[in-house]
Design goal:
metal-binding, 22% helix, six-stranded antiparallel sheet, eight-stranded antiparallel sheet, Neuraminidase, disordered N terminus, 923 residues, Cytochrome Bc1 Complex, Chain D, domain 2, heme, alpha+beta, Jelly Rolls, single chain
């Protein structure tokens, strides 16, 4: 048992980026490894947590005697320590010093391998300098076709802990950095292998906080949408811009893949398990019991002896020192290649880097529901194990050559610095074996099989004619089919539509037909009659694809398919019925509830029952935060109707603007609009008084936005709430009271606004970097030099860490004295102290509690010494807090608690996140 004072740190799961741990004891024979491993001359004695007694039962049996430091091996030596089933072999294709600390790989249409190198990950046990701009994305080629990637360039350099790399056309990738909100497109325009052009791709995509808790793995799904972990939405590029749709919560951290049917599989991190995989995520979340077979959470790694598990001795299998229960996971892949045994096709692989294993999972579908089984559980083994404790498998990838690639960060510490702080069990183990000295290494491995030579055909899709690419949709390796589809969709070559249509309707291979359908959908060339014919196919898998691909036609306004989709609810196949339920619910087809009830009455399959019941009576989402009230839900519903009946004519059904010819739009795009998500006054003033002229230097064919001040306050609040919350935007709802206030304050406005005039008249948001935050108490989750009150401006949040007491304070200093308009923040949440994850397979997260400030005052000051109380008493709320200061002037702003909360201390720490400060516009 671990002492309660640090049980929290040991039980919070590690996470997303899922990086690495340690190494075997063998001489270092390569100078580059000597340079990477700075071995100390003396062996420090590990320190116990403060006050710990080695004789205490909590520490009984823990060996903390000084040990020889763990030493890294050459790749050839590490290779000897892998354990695989008979017939399989593993070999390196790219290693250090060419790459350092690889976390993921991705191939472009020409088979070039992009490597995400997190060069700042855990260089010390305190994660020092983790956010320095020294990480990179490199690109590698096997030009002599010998199976080794010998030629490479630094494609994008000087990155701050990049979150993903997604090839996005010839010589082009998408990526973003940690603690940022924008995804950028990087392009090599001169062919030298280095990106020289950087363009904004989309915004409002990220979050701040611990690097293991941020979004990762942007991924191109078979449905032509882009997905990522963490984010509960998907995006897609269209001729008029990036569109966005909300999805279910994927509860993932480091890894996304898809199967031959196009269903996405998300990989958890902290749980050590796959996260969401039952149904396509865009249909929302469904709670399915018993998704994991008995014993699934037990890993069977090889003996590593170190007992270096974050959870302490509770997580150690004795006497071999291996991991006793999964605690971290990373990278995933549904193997869809053609150069490994056919029994591996459709099997799910992921890494557990704490256990030093790669696991093979067999998904078993029964009555429409999937249960996951560890293929080697009965043998108390795993697909791939290693006795080298530095083996850290963090990504799995079906490669163009038909084999399976493993990304091995080969690193000393796997847990991020939040869980390796002084006084913890893990920190003692790190210091005992000097694991913090093993940095700057990394290998990419290929797994092949005896008698099955890798495919030596070299992809060259960017130079191939479209008609040739269509033939690749019939390739036995799923990577080739995916890549060809993506290149064709980006190319927008409608000349191949007849070829694709014939393939979709008549090819003998269902996989080929599936990709042909989705390529047509991606080109905007899918026709109603093709979907209708597919819905009548004898193969139920094709009927499912007809339903899924046809969704885009109904969303675009084609009502003729609605009857076909309702009829599918009565299909004789269980899986088709379930898909019809999901599609009907997603599209909100007229009368779909009655159709589902009939389906449930006629088919007693567990999956039909579960999906039907949860659609008709949705369970409350886990960790969804404060729910919308009935009034707020009504607001959005009313606003949706208003938008679709009126606003969509100019602004487009999806909010991306209606095309007006010659590349122009009739009106500005509202989806993903920074203006629509800024201070509510901007949107309210536009609707009340109208807007004309250029906006940010861009003109529109419609010319102007007319005034709608004749509409009631509720009408304006409803439609703007929908726009700010339902069109690829993530901003607060607007109340009728806010509209009334702006209506009164702008009563003298004559005529339509000009953009420049309007922009200057509304409150503007101060950027966090412009302010200095301090607090009487700080217990931020950020570590390694990042602990500060400024965490309140991030998603991660700030907390006092202890019970709210009178006169606790939080202060913001501005660069100069300003007129403060509003202060916004969201009540943060924290894990209940003392909670420990129970044994057995788990997908439920830790229990969170809300910790909003109960009663506080607002004070301002010009010098930080003499304070004026401008609002004597405010009662905080659970969720979003919006405080109007009506232009109060000050260089300092302070929130001060007015009372002590005399209840359970765990319940009432003071926390805030996503803080925003708005100032009145300059005169």
């Amino acid at each position: 048992m671990i002492k309660p004072i640090y049980k929290l740190a040991l039980s919070i799961a590690l996470s997303t980026i899922a990086l690495l741990s340690f190494v075997g004891s063998s001489p270092i024979r390569d100078i580059r490894l000597r340079q990477a491993y700075n071995q100390s001359d003396t062996l420090p004695k590990p320190t116990l947590p403060e006050g710990a007694n080695p004789e205490d039962p909590d520490w009984a049996g823990i060996d903390l005697a000084p040990k020889a430091p763990v030493q890294p091996l050459e790749a050839a030596e590490e290779q000897k320590l892998f354990l695989l089933p008979p017939g399989y072999k593993i070999e390196p294709v790219l290693t250090e010093p060419a790459i350092q600390q690889p976390a993921a790989i991705s191939f472009d249409g020409n088979g070039r391998m992009y490597v995400l190198e997190l060069r700042t990950y855990m260089l010390t046990a305190d994660s020092k300098d983790e956010l320095q701009p020294t990480s990179r994305i490199s690109r590698w080629e096997d030009k002599n076709n010998d199976g080794v990637y010998e030629t490479g360039t630094t494609f994008v350099d000087s990155l701050i802990f990049p979150r993903f790399v997604l090839p996005y056309g010839k010589d082009c990738i998408l990526t973003m950095e940690s603690d940022q909100d924008n995804v950028f497109k990087h392009t090599d325009t001169n062919g030298d292998g280095k990106a020289d052009k950087k363009e904004l791709f989309t915004n409002k995509y990220g979050r701040s906080g611990n690097v293991e808790h941020q979004q990762a793995f942007m991924y191109w799904g078979m449905d032509n949408w882009l997905y990522s972990t963490v984010n509960a939405f998907r995006i897609r590029e269209t001729p008029t811009g990036i569109i966005r749709e909300k999805t279910g919560t994927n509860r993932a951290q480091w890894g996304i893949t898809h199967d031959d049917a196009g269903k996405l599989w998300f990989q958890g991190g902290a749980s050590g398990l796959p996260s969401y995989f039952q149904f396509p995520i865009h249909y929302g979340n469904f709670e399915v019991p018993d998704e994991f077979a008995k014993g699934f959470d037990i890993p069977w790694g090889a003996a590593v002896k170190l007992a270096d598990m974050q959870g302490g001795m509770d997580e150690v299998r004795q006497p071999d020192g291996s991991l006793a229960r999964v605690t971290g996971a990373a990278g995933n892949d549904i193997y869809r290649g053609d150069r490994l045994p056919a029994t591996l096709k459709g099997q799910y692989f992921y890494g557990e880097p704490v256990a030093r294993i790669v696991r093979q999972i067999n998904p078993v579908v029964n009555e429409g529901l999937t249960t996951l089984h560890n293929v080697f559980q009965d043998q108390q083994s795993e697909f791939l194990r290693s006795t080298d404790p530095l083996f850290r498998p963090v990504d799995m990838t079906t490669a163009p050559d038909g084999t399976l690639y493993i990304t091995d960060m080969y690193h000393g510490i796997i847990q991020e610095g939040q869980w390796t702080q002084k006084g913890t069990y893990l920190r003692a183990k790190i210091e005992q074996y000097q694991l913090d000295k093993v940095v700057g290494l990394g290998r990419i491995w290929r797994i092949s099989y005896e008698g099955k030579e890798r495919d030596k055909a070299r992809p060259n899709m960017y130079a191939a004619r479209s008609a040739e690419l269509v033939k690749h949709l019939d390739h036995p390796n799923g990577w080739w089919r995916d890549a060809a589809q993506q290149v064709l969709v980006q190319r927008k070559d409608v000349a191949i539509v007849p070829q694709l249509t014939a393939m979709a309707l008549s090819d003998k291979n269902p996989l080929t037909r599936t990709h042909a359908l989705w390529t047509l959908e991606g080109l905007g060339a899918l026709k109603t009659d093709v979907v209708q014919k597919t819905l009548k196919d004898v193969n139920p898998k094709m009927r499912i694809q007809g339903l899924r691909t046809g969704e885009s036609l109904i969303k675009a306004g084609d009502k003729t398919l609605e009857a076909n989709f309702i009829n599918a609810l009565y299909d004789t196949d269980t899986d088709v019925q379930i898909q019809a339920m999901l599609t009907a619910k997603f599209l909100k087809l007229p009368g779909f509830e009655n159709g589902m009830k009939s389906a449930m009455a006629s088919n007693k399959a567990a999956g039909v029952k579960l999906v039907g019941e949860q659609i008709l009576n949705p369970p409350k989402p886990r960790n969804a935060g404060p729910e919308l009230t009935v009034a707020q839900k009504t607001q959005i519903e009313n606003g949706t109707l208003i938008y679709n009946e009126l606003c969509s004519q100019c602004h487009g059904n999806s909010g991306m603007g209606t095309p007006a010819g010659n590349g122009r739009l009739l009106a500005p795009a509202l989806a993903g609009s920074a203006h629509m998500q800024s201070h509510p006054d901007y949107a309210i003033r536009v609707v009340l008084h109208g807007l004309e002229g250029a906006i940010d230097g861009k003109t529109y064919a419609g010319g102007l936005m007319t005034s709608m001040k004749e509409q009631p306050d509720e009408w304006i609040a409803d439609v703007l709430s929908y726009i700010r919350n339902g069109l690829s935007n993530d901003a607060s709802l607007i109340s009728a009271e806010q509209v009334a206030k702006v209506r009164k304050s702008t009563a003298r406005q004559q005529g339509l606004y000009q953009y420049a005039e309007l922009y200057k008249s509304v409150p503007y948001e101060l950027m966090p970097k412009e302010m200095v935050a301090t607090a009487s108490h700080t217990a931020s989750t950020r570590i390694g030099g990042n602990v500060s009150a400024a965490s309140a401006f991030t998603y991660e949040g700030w907390s006092t860490g202890v019970r709210q007491e009178k006169d606790m304070w939080y202060q913001i200093e501005f660069p100069t004295e300003i007129s403060i308009a509003e202060l916004h923040f969201t009540a943060s949440q924290t894990i209940r102290k003392g909670w420990k994850r129970p044994p057995g397979p788990q997908t439920s997260p830790a229990p969170y509690i809300q910790t909003y400030p109960r009663v506080f005052a607002i004070e301002t000051s010009s010098d930080g010494k003499n304070w004026q109380e401008v609002i004597p008493e405010i009662k905080g709320v659970n969720g979003e807090n919006i405080i109007s200061l009506n232009g109060s002037k000050g260089k300092f702003l302070k929130l001060r608690l007015r009372e002590t909360v005399a209840v359970d201390p765990d319940e009432v720490a003071w926390s805030m996140r996503q803080m925003k400060v708005f100032a009145l516009a300059m005169p």
